[in-house]
Every structure is written in structure tokens, then in C-alpha cells.
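Exercise 7. Given the encoded structure of a 323-residue chain, write a plausible sequence.
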């Protein structure tokens, strides 16, 4: 293990338990804050997925919601978003670094280096599987609030939580875990594997300079650029499942408010939407996820730099290759 010093002069061993905890903290800062900041775009995206005719676009939606509900209305579901994605970020980044190290140790450093993309994919998939278990209940609350039909009274975080618990029990919070895994696991696999490879390509092919020759500010610039490109790829890969999650929770809410007893499944939603319907709201989500992913990587790597750790990815001098 390598040892680096933080700004408080306390050394952090790369791939030590303390290192993984710090990565988890960085994930909380990266994901909780950014997802909360993007709540208005996320809410409009969810509503467009459930009712494509609701708004003509992002700006039309912002104008209509702000006009009828005020700025507060744009942050509907914000509390659930912040809590849920803080927990998810902790698991996503912390477990990713742990599994990347553990799997690398299991197969040996030479094989891990030869098949590093496979290492990134397997580590990120494992991390996201666990992170989504923490996220799912909060995601359910968020989507129920955000996809309420126009004119429907929307309760706050606590009342929505209570409503789901009373009507459906624990199962109600995890009804969407399957679609959530289908959305988030491919998303995270693309997010981490593409980011790591894009960063390496920028240093080796574009800048043609090792990371060690660039300032920390320049390295963070590379982080942001690679994060945005990775985010665009993430949005495209995960969007169909995201549409199903929004529709599934919207249907569940409408049935709780009516006497309808018909069973709605993922397969029936897929038949109803069709291939074209699965891609509704893609452009707002590309904008949201691209910005979100780039900002998350920037916050995460900035936190690492602040604590004396190296930025993620690069030319072989990064933490992922130190054991």
C-alpha cells in the first residue's frame, strides 16, 4: 500500500479502510448535493416520462411549475433526493474503490492491469448493486411525489413515506428495485469504466503528457471533461429503465388513489410504451446526467485532492494501481 499525507498531516494508506471511508464521504458530497441541485430537471423529466404532453420542453416545464407552485414547487421531492443519493453516493464510490482493490488482489496485479476495463465494470456493478438497496426506498418516495397527477394534493416527505408504508408495507418501497438495478447498474458500469478510460485517453492521446506533469487544477479539468462525456453515455444506456421506474411508481400512486385493482407489471408498461415511448425525456436526461456526472467527478476528485489523495484515473500514478 502507498501512503499519502492529508492536509492535516495524517497519512492515509491507499486502499486502507480509512481510504475507503474517505471515498465514501467523497461520494456523499458528490451525489447528494448534485442530485438535489438537479431536482427541478429531474422532476420535469419524470413528469414528461409519465405524461409526454405535460410540457413542451424543459423551459416550458420550469415556467409552468414556477408559475403555479413557485420556486418551492420546482424542488418537489428534494428531501428524498438528497437523502437517497447521499446514501447511494457513499455506497457507489466507497464500494467501487473497495471492490476495485479486492478484485485486483484476487486476480493479481498483472492480470488486473491487462483486463482493467473488466475490473472497472465488475467493481462498479458490485458497488451499485449494494448502493441501490439503500437508494430504492427514497427513490420510491421521490418519484411518487414528483409524478402526482395535476391537481392532486401532494404530501411532503414524511407523509408520502407514511402513505406508502401504510398502504403497501416494506414491499412498497422496494417494488421498483428490479428496474432500479436495470437502470443504475449499467449506468454506473458505463460511468466508471468510460470515465477511467477517457481520462487515460486524454492524458496519453490528447495531452500526451503524464498526469504528474500537470497541476492539480489541470487534472481536475481533465476530470470534469471526462465526467461529462461519460455522463452522456450513461444517460443513453440507462434511459429506458429510468422511464419504466417513473411509469411504474406513477401507476402505483394512481391506483392507491382509486379503486382499481388491476395488476401492473414491467411487461405491461413495456407494451404500453413501445420502443419509442421508452426514450421519452431523453434530451432533458442527457443534459441532467451529463452535468450531474461531470460535477460529481469534479467534487469527488476535489475532495480527494483536498485530503492529499490523487485524482482518479490517469497514467499509472493514480490510486487504483497502487497496492
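Solution.
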Amino acid at each position: 500500500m502507498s501512503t499519502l499525507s492529508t492536509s492535516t498531516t495524517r497519512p492515509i494508506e491507499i486502499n486502507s479502510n480509512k481510504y475507503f471511508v474517505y471515498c465514501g464521504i467523497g461520494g456523499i458530497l458528490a451525489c447528494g448535493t448534485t442530485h438535489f441541485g438537479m431536482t427541478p430537471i429531474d422532476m420535469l423529466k419524470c413528469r414528461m416520462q409519465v405524461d409526454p404532453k405535460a410540457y413542451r420542453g424543459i423551459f416550458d416545464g420550469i415556467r409552468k411549475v414556477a408559475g403555479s407552485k413557485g420556486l418551492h414547487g420546482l424542488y418537489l421531492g428534494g428531501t428524498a433526493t438528497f437523502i437517497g443519493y447521499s446514501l447511494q453516493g457513499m455506497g457507489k464510490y466507497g464500494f467501487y474503490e473497495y471492490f476495485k482493490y479486492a478484485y485486483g488482489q484476487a486476480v493479481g496485479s498483472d492480470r488486473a492491469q491487462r483486463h482493467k476495463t473488466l475490473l472497472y465494470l465488475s467493481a462498479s456493478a458490485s458497488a451499485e448493486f449494494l448502493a441501490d438497496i439503500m437508494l430504492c426506498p427514497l427513490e420510491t418516495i421521490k418519484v411518487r411525489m414528483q409524478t402526482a397527477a395535476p391537481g392532486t394534493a401532494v404530501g411532503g416527505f414524511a407523509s408520502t413515506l407514511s402513505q406508502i408504508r401504510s398502504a403497501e408495507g416494506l414491499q412498497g418501497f422496494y417494488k421498483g428495485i428490479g428496474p432500479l438495478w436495470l437502470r443504475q447498474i449499467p449506468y454506473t458500469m458505463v460511468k466508471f469504466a468510460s470515465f477511467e478510460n477517457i481520462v487515460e485517453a486524454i492524458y496519453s492521446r490528447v495531452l500526451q503528457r503524464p498526469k504528474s506533469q500537470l497541476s492539480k487544477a489541470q487534472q481536475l479539468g481533465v476530470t470534469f471533461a471526462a465526467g461529462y462525456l461519460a455522463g452522456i453515455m450513461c444517460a443513453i444506456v440507462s434511459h429506458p429503465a429510468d422511464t419504466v421506474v417513473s411509469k411504474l411508481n406513477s401507476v402505483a400512486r394512481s391506483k392507491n388513489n382509486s379503486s382499481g385493482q388491476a395488476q401492473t407489471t414491467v411487461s405491461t408498461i413495456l407494451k404500453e410504451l413501445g420502443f419509442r415511448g421508452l426514450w421519452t425525456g431523453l434530451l432533458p436526461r442527457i443534459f441532467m446526467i451529463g452535468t450531474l456526472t461531470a460535477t460529481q467527478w469534479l467534487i469527488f476528485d476535489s475532495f480527494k485532492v483536498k485530503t492529499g489523495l490523487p485524482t482518479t484515473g490517469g497514467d499509472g500514478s493514480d490510486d487504483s494501481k497502487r497496492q
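Remark. Residues 216-256 form the longest helix (41 residues). Students should compare their own answers with the one above.
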